[in-house]
């Protein structure tokens, strides 16, 4: 050690450990094998399907699924719908109520397609729909 260097404070030389407090933001489960209801979200300008937002009260589950052929636009759109779902969960409302609130929602690029509320056997079915070509 040169004369200009200061010695390291021994209490800072130890590894630092953090204890996590709480479990972070409230979130619905992102998968369920129970029946779900879903809404179709389309691009405001072109009408192309960007993805689907789905919900299931039985498993306290809800999520956004981006349409595979929507590319980056669908992924970016997911941020809006994910935030809305997280906010609804934080307010303690059931997934079906969150979906009802979202039925008249818009983002900068997308909007819920009117009359698009539909049923699916589970969340994997919505994911399969999102993965299929239009």
Low-confidence runs: 16-22
Helix content: 25-40%
Tally of alpha and pi helices: 4
Strand content: 15-25%
How does the helix and strand content classify structurally?
Answer: alpha+beta
User: How does the major sheet shape up?
Assistant: 5 strands, antiparallel
- Ends distance: 67 Å
Rounded Rg: 21 Å
Sum up the overall morphology in one term.
globular
Mean pLDDT: 85
What's the number of domains? 1
Instruction: Spell out the helices and strands N to C.
Output: HEEEHHEEH
Number of strands: 5
Write the layout of secondary structure elements.
Blueprint: H1 10-13, E1 36-43, E2 49-56, E3 61-66, H2 71-90, H3 95-102, E4 110-112, E5 118-120, H4 123-131
Antiparallel strand pairs: 1-2, 1-4, 1-5, 2-3
Task: Describe it.
This protein is of the alpha+beta class and 134 residues long. The protein has one domain. The protein is built from four helices and five strands, in the order αβββααββα. Strands 1, 2, 3, 4 and 5 form a five-stranded antiparallel β-sheet that branches. β2 and β3 form a beta hairpin. α2 packs across α3. About 5% of the residues have low confidence.
What structural keywords apply?
4 helices, single chain, alpha+beta, 5 strands, 134 residues
Short description:
By secondary structure, the chain is of the alpha+beta class. The protein has helices at 10-13, 71-90, 95-102, 123-131; strands at 36-43, 49-56, 61-66, 110-112, 118-120.
